[in-house]
Specification:
6 helices, 2 strands, rod-shaped, CRA_dom
């Protein structure tokens, strides 16, 4: 996915969320393997990622993970935070790729009408909100 290619932080947070979900499901061996293979290389590249990995893996040490220092990672709010980050990235990518065309078209219409005013009589749009054509005054 193009969004993940250009946003390594988002990709990391999605991977971190996957690790959290494995821990939540009690899949300890799978969680450790995933952390080693997928997250550890990212931690070597980025100190902030390493700190987040350490916090997440620390959940494996505590018997009562809900009351451990990083128990908030298992809260629904963590899922919502990750989901919000994904949504924001999608919306940002769409607005950059697809600028709204209407403002540009309206500017072009006004410019064209101004150019034509000097050269010809034509049906003109004076009210942009209704787009009603008005016959030229001859």
């Amino acid at each position: 996915m193009q969004i993940l290619d250009t946003n390594p932080e988002l990709y990391f947070h999605l991977q971190q969320q996957k690790l959290i979900e494995l821990i939540r499901a009690g899949k300890i061996n799978e969680a450790l393997e995933f952390a080693q293979e997928e997250l550890a290389p990212r931690g070597e590249e980025n100190q902030a990622f390493l700190e987040e990995i350490e916090k997440t893996v620390a959940l494996l040490v505590f018997e009562d993970v809900k009351n451990c220092p990083y128990g908030e990672l298992l809260d629904v709010s963590q899922r919502l935070k990750t989901a919000s980050e994904v949504n924001a990235a999608i919306l940002t990518s769409q607005s950059h790729e697809k600028d709204p065309k209407l403002p540009s078209l309206l500017k072009m219409l006004i410019w064209t009408q101004n150019q034509l005013n000097e050269k010809a009589a034509y049906p003109r749009i004076n009210n942009l909100s209704t787009a009603a054509l008005e016959d030229p005054a001859i």
